[in-house]
């Protein structure tokens, strides 16, 4: 009986550590999301010109897929800049071909576009100030994993050591 009690205490300790680790992941992801949103909201916007708009297949191992490649130019303080960054984040947006084609069609070559740029570093720019759905989905999944783990911990706990069991 004492052996079973020590195993239960050990399992409770492991569950607590796992819960705290998962909660830490959620708070970390939420912090990244908040920081990203603050960065995006602080960008200035200006009208630019779309130079080219096409879809390219990008082979990045696990993150391979199609991406809209939109090259644009804009002028800040009399200096012309060119870029092809779609989102502020440092990764390339890859997805399925239909998504990439639909996105590229929104930026037709020769048309004007809104460019979001950093006033302190005007060469840093992007075409959208929206948070990628993947980031939001990832934070939501982490939240539900932690919440589900917490519910599982409560359900698996059983009676506290030393308390009388019902039965």
Backbone structural class? alpha+beta
Number of strands: 5
End-to-end Cα distance: 17 Å
Radius of gyration: 24 Å
Q: How would you state the average pLDDT, rounded? A: 76
Residues in helix, % = 40-55%
Query: Strand-and-helix sequence, N→C?
Result: HEEEHEEH
Number of H/I helices: 3
The geometry reads as elongated
Poorly predicted residue ranges: none
Write out the strand line-up for the largest beta sheet, numbering strands in chain order.
3-2-1-4-5
Beta-strand percentage range: 25-35%
Q: What composes the largest sheet?
A: 5 strands, antiparallel
Q: Topology of this protein?
A:
Layout: H1 2-41, E1 44-58, E2 65-76, E3 79-83, H2 97-105, E4 112-118, E5 121-126, H3 133-156
Helix pairs in contact: 1-3
Describe what this molecule looks like in 3D.
- There is one protein chain.
- The chain is α+β, with helices and mostly antiparallel strands.
- Among the domains are: 42-128, no CATH class; 131-159.
- Helices cover 44% and strands 27% of the residues.
- Strands 3-2-1-4-5 form a 5-stranded antiparallel sheet.
- Helix 1 runs antiparallel to helix 3.
- The longest helix has 40 residues, at 2-41.
- The chain starts with a helix and ends in an 11-residue tail after the last helix.
Attribute tags:
alpha+beta; 5-stranded antiparallel β-sheet; elongated; 167 residues; 3 helices
């Amino acid at each position: 009986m004492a052996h079973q009690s020590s195993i239960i205490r050990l399992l409770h300790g492991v569950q607590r550590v796992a819960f705290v680790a998962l909660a830490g992941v959620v708070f970390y992801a939420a912090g990244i999301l908040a920081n990203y949103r603050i960065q995006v909201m602080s960008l200035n916007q200006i009208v630019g010109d779309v130079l080219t708009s096409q879809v390219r297949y990008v082979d990045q191992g696990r993150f391979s897929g199609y991406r809209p490649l939109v090259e644009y130019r804009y002028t800040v303080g009399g200096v012309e800049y060119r870029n092809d960054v779609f989102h502020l984040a440092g990764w390339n947006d890859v997805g399925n071909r239909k998504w990439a084609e639909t996105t590229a069609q929104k930026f037709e070559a020769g048309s004007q576009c809104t460019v979001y740029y950093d006033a302190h570093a005007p060469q840093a720019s992007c075409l959208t100030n929206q948070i990628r759905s993947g980031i939001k989905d990832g934070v939501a999944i982490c939240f539900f994993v932690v919440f589900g783990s917490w519910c599982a911990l409560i359900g698996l706990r059983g009676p506290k050591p030393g308390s009388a069991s019902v039965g």
